[in-house]
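Each letter names a residue; the fold follows as tokens. Both lines appear below:
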Amino acid sequence: MDAPAEKVAVLHLLGVHPNAHGKGVGTALLQKAKAVCRERNDAAIRLDTLPHNLPARRLYESFGFQSCGEISLTDPAAGTIPFRLYEFKI
């Protein structure tokens, strides 16, 4: 989506303790993020995850996030790391 940077919220890290998986915690966190972004008049929420993180990908996709492809970033210490990009239009 083409939107000014100040109208796009970026969720840098969403984590749910393994003991809470499958209990709606991730969905509740995304609902709260969506509500905050609506109040701020944001146009979208963007986030990323590792491609092999299937639980996160299922959560984001079931919530309505659209996959926007993958990118790879290279770090001298960690090497090349792929990321799956997602966007949720508000």
